[in-house]
Amino acid sequence: MSSTVLFRRGRVIDPRNGVDGIRDVLVRDGKVAEVSEALLPVPSSAEVVDASGKWVLPGFIDLHVHLREPGEEGKETVLTGCRAAVAGGFTAVVAMPNTKVVNDNGIVTELILSRARAANLCHVYPAGAITKGLKGEEMAEMGELVSAGCVAITDDGRPVMNAALMRRALQYSTQFDVPIMVHEEDLTLSAGGAMHEGPTSTRLGLRGIPASAEVAMVARDLVLLEETGARLHLAHVSCEGSVRLIREAKRRGLRVTSEVTPHHLILDDRAVEGYDTHAKMAPPLRSNRDVEALREAIADGTVEAIATDHAPHGVLDKLVEFEKGINGIIGLETAFSLTMELVHSGVLPPKRAVELLTHGPAKAFGLPGGHLAPGAPADVTVVDPSEEWTVDAHRFHSRSRNTPFHGRKQQGRVVQTWVGGRKVFENGQVGLSKESR
Amino acid sequence: MRHLLGIEGWRRDELEALLDKAQAHLPGKPDTTHILRGKVVANLFFEDSTRTRTSFHMAAKGLGASVMNWTQSGSSVSKGETLLDTARNIEATGPVAIVMRHKSSGAPHLVAKHVRCAVINAGDGTHEHPSQALLDAFTLRQRWGALDGRTVLIVGDLLHSRVARSNLLCLKALGARVVMCGPPTLIPPGLESLGAEVTHNLDAVLPQADAVMCLRLQLERQSENFLPSIREFSRLFGLNPAREERMKPEAVVMHPGPINRGVEISPAVADGPRSVILEQVSNGVAVRRAILEVCAS
Predict the structure, then answer these.
(1) Which of A201, A207, A275 sits opposite B110 (nearest CB)?
(2) Ranges for the Aspartate/ornithine carbamoyltransferase carbamoyl-P binding domain (chain B) (predicted)?
(3) What is the pLDDT of residues A257-272, one digit of tens each?
(4) In terms of Cα–Cα distance, which of A302, A268, A298, A303 is closest to A283?
């Protein structure tokens, strides 16, 4: 079994450690052993990866994926979700609790973790529910969830509408110092809505979801955060107004972190044109002005993570009237190249783009990895920043195909993914090589 | 073959050609039953309808087609059959056109992507109702010759009205000025970007109008707090005899139906000398014949 790997002459971008340049990276026994500007001697029995012309990056971390197991294995399983993750360069994912048996207790957490061990591809960190059954009525046993391995607590997919309950959950979470992750949507404002409220919704005759449905809840929870001193993570931020509030809260030192999805950074509400249900998600694709504000917020550090909200759904869930179409799209296998669109168009410098996929999310949730200092886990993603390819949903490793990006030309592609010093993905093929199994 | 999914996407010359064709389908014109003889037109009505369904039915008959009338009640929709399965099964019986009404905006667009025959939108959710806009434009052209420079005032619930959207697009395309008036809660954002002038003050704009089109207020909107009461809506936006007196002498009153008498329009106005409401209905058959001729033959 090869436990020593030498990544030769790649451009190493490790934002946490301030590295951006040609380096050799030596990995031994599942950890980073050395990062060197000079050529390193090749240890005997080492596997050598010629990374010249490539970028050698910390493995990507996705704070927001739906693996659908247990309960909706036709859409995705922990195994297929992990395959999609490593194919997209992700070495760690946070699994949302809104499975069809809700992850609101330690037994479900254990099940997800045991499926992840069996998949043996990437790290899976479960998130537990804030409320039992995601009903927004009674708090779930946060202590049990945390001790079983949950790294965040969230009712994702649903807001906690009851402000008093939300306040208690934030208070209660401080004893575990676990982040409370929120899907901000005032259901009384979004009721009946199918897309962002604006000129496009007017023209298409679809009931709009105003930006205030999100922003009002962000405002409420920042006030509650200030009172409780908890950690708050805002999932899939979509509006200019939210960004403004986050910026202000950070200035005052509140412990708030947030994420934006690639699709909210790339598409605006005009993507709904033609009633394409693949452009239907919660929160909805917003106006161009919101997109600009989100781009600014990821560039200036207001938002610390790009997260996919990978939401697998079956073909029939989307092949219906727009209003009936289910919310969400998959994202693990397009996140990197979509982020590279922002690099190629000058919105993000490469280092910041990498940070949003690595150290940013790791720090937000206090997860291991996200950087390549000696001693760090050898979770490494090798990408070709200039390879051109076309998104083909039929070739996804995910069990689902629901993406609005099918057929989109991309520049920048994941070449290899390594987890704990083992190669789990290379050139389109997922799986451990024989010698590292 | 051509779909009619909305007024959007149709150029002025195409709309005018269609309206010109409708002239030849007015009562008393030569027989047109050869146009779709031996063909089938399928009426798919997922929502209730009086005028549109009977009008399309008569139009298809007038072109010599046989008509399959399908309505949601009594169908397998109650067994969970999807829209696409329903539409594909209807298509498999061989119609040249599917005329459909559905409560969801964009439903005909979905069907059009998956069938080979023409799809004619007979009203989709709160999106468009193109045949209504065409028959309205036809009715106004009969009076005025051309719509250029004329002012049409559309009053009422603009947020939920597919008639309003289609009329805005159609009237603008044909050169008219469109003023839209209603309470702020029932005006969707961005109407101006589609070419409308928007106001909340009916009395101020009423004297400018060459035609006033009242829209039906869906009475259930009150429970969603769009309005404090029907009474107040009627007081602010209802077309009553006092308001009618302040209209231009030649101005006409329109309504796509069904009417809530005494809410958006007083009976005396609806049945009065300015009303062209029943002309609209009569013209509907000729216009829909022209639609079927253009789309399905």
Answers:
(1) A275
(2) 2-142
(3) 999 999 999 999 999 9
(4) A268
Task: Tell me the whole-structure pTM to 2 decimals.
Answer: 0.95
> In this structure, what DSSP letter does residue B239 have?
B
For residue A137, give the DSSP letter: S
Calculate the CA dihedral of residues B226, B232, B238, B240 and round it to 10 degrees: 170
Is the Cα torsion angle A74, A80, A85, A87 positive or negative in sign?
negative
Q: Answer yes or no: do B8 and A203 touch at CB < 8 A.
A: yes
Domain boundary among A346, A365, A384: A365
B126 Cα to chain A: minimum distance (Å): 5
Q: What whole-number percentage of chain A has pLDDT above 90?
A: 97
Q: In this structure, what token pair is assigned to residue A262?
A: 């690639």
The answer to whether A316 is annotated as binding is: no
**Residue ranges of A 294-333 with Cβ closer than 8 A to chain B:** 316, 319-324
Q: Is B102 on the interface with A (CB under 8 A)?
A: yes
Which residues 6+ apart lie within 8 Å of B149 measured at CB? B175, B176, B177
Q: How many CA atoms lie within 13 A of A360 on its CB side?
A: 26
Q: What is the DSSP string of A163-225?
A: HHHHHHHHHHHTTTTPPEEE----HHHHTT--EESSHHHHHHT--EE-THHHHHHHHHHHHHH
What's A350's domain CATH number? 3.20.20.140
Residue burial A353-372, b: 16+ Cβ < 10 Å; e: rest: bbbbbbbbbbbbbebebbbb
10 Å Cβ neighbour count for B194?
Answer: 17
A164-215 pLDDT, tens per residue? Answer: 999 999 999 999 999 999 999 999 999 999 999 999 999 999 999 999 999 9
> What does the pLDDT read at residue B258?
93
Same domain for A350 and A382, yes or no, is no
Give yes or no for B21 touching A (CB within 8 A): no
Cβ of B110 within 8 Å of Cβ of A320? The answer is yes
**A402 among annotated binding-site residues:** no
Same domain, residue pair A165 and A86: yes
Domain assignment present for A286: yes
A138 and A81 within one domain: yes
pLDDT tens digits, A114-169: 999 999 999 999 999 999 999 999 999 999 999 999 999 999 999 999 999 999 99
Write down the pLDDT at residue A434. Answer: 53
DSSP state string for B7-67: STT--HHHHHHHHHHHHTTSTTSPP-TTTTTT-EEEEEESS--SHHHHHHHHHHHHTT-EE
Of A311, A331, A365, which residue sits at a domain end?
A365
Nearest-by-Cβ selection for B126 from A200, A205, A319: A205
CA A279 – CA A271 distance, rounded (Å): 6
Paired residues of A233 in beta bridges: A181, A257
Q: Is this complex scored with an ipTM above 0.90?
A: yes
Spell out the residues 6+ positions from residue A430 whose beta carbon is closer than 8 angstroms to its own: A83, A86, A87, A121, A397, A424
Q: Identify residue A221 by its one-letter amino acid code.
A: D
List the domains of chain B with CATH numbers.
12-128+284-296 (3.40.50.1370), 130-280 (3.40.50.1370)
Mutate to test the interface with A, among B7, B77, B86, B105 (most CBs of A within 10 A): B105
CA-atom Rg of chain B in angstroms: 19
Q: Are the Cβ atoms of B126 and A203 closer than 8 angstroms?
A: no
Whether A275 sits inside 8 A of B126 (CB atoms) is: no
Q: Name every residue whose Cβ is closer than 8 Å to that of residue A62 and which is 6 or more positions away in sequence.
A: A85, A90, A92, A93, A94, A307, A308, A310, A332, A335, A361
Backbone angles phi, psi at A39, to 5 degrees: -60, 130
